[in-house]
User: Fold this.
Amino acid sequence: MKSLFRETSLPKSKYEEDVYINNHTSVWGSWWKDHQWGYKCCKQTIRNSYCTGAAGIEAAEAAADLMKANIDRKAASEETPVPAEEKRLATWGNDVPDDLLLDQKQLTEALKKEDERKKEEKDERKRKYNVRWNDEVTAEEMEAYRMKRIHHDDPMKDFLH
Assistant:
């Protein structure tokens, strides 16, 4: 008579909250950290990840410690002053260092090139279709651009044109 009746286990609940997947021993949403839900058993916040258990927790803590150390090392390296040579070559932006060294011959050539560029810029019809751009800019070319550009706060800007 016993063989006729099989032992069937009744489900604990009709909801999926009691279903453990991917070797987890807790359900999704049983752990909360940094505004993210996760698994309590392995403290993972990736929904369908495989449970790594205590080894995964230790690895995550080691990775977090390494990341903190890298951030601290980077912050310490940014606090060190920039050498004078690198300050001298910083020609981008509005603040020009007082100790900027420029070659006068290259500066006059750059001023001529800037005048030619301004002429070409005015007449778009003469521009070729296959224009090649050079994105490598020297300190002299940048200074020539600064010298030739129109300064909108200059009271004499209308007098020159």
